[in-house]
């Protein structure tokens, strides 16, 4: 099933392709301070694929904090938090803010609170390689 989404202004667009039904997807509520301030419902599925497309490289604002093992993707124009990405050599993995999807209301699972504070940077990257969604970035800043 394909799902389309975007930030509020449309400068960053999302195409998600997953074989699992929306109501069966697992949603997380990461307890880090960044995710709590956005009240993010986080989505990842290692068997899915996502393409995140920027109208132009200036549409993308990247933010890092803590261990700086990932980057938060925020629209530079409308301020919507879109996704968290891990650049892993040639590969990219992401967790989506599921509420950026047009059909977000189909994702009805209650969120699981998740605390990752005790992880080392190495453990964190290893978990993301296993659990995050393989991702293609288009129109992205270098
Ligand atoms: Zn925007």
Explain the overall architecture.
The chain is mainly β. The chain has helices spanning 33-38, 121-131; strands at residues 2-6, 12-17, 27-30, 42-43, 49-54, 60-63, 71-75, 81-88, 91-97, 112-114, 133-138. Strands 1, 2, 3, 4, 5, 6, 7, 8, 9, 10 and 11 form an 11-stranded mixed β-sheet that branches. Strand 1 and strand 2 (12-17) form a beta hairpin. It is globular. The N and C termini lie far apart (31 Å). The chain binds zinc ion (ZN).
Please supply descriptive tags for the structure shown above.
Metal Binding Protein, Guanine Nucleotide Exchange Factor, Chain A, eleven-stranded mixed beta sheet, 12% helix, globular, binds zinc ion
Present the secondary structure layout.
Blueprint: E1 2-6, E2 12-17, E3 27-30, H1 33-38, E4 42-43, E5 49-54, E6 60-63, E7 71-75, E8 81-88, E9 91-97, E10 112-114, H2 121-131, E11 133-138
Parallel strand pairs: 3-10, 5-11
Antiparallel strand pairs: 1-2, 2-5, 3-4, 4-9, 6-7, 7-8, 8-9, 9-11
This protein binds zinc ion (ZN).
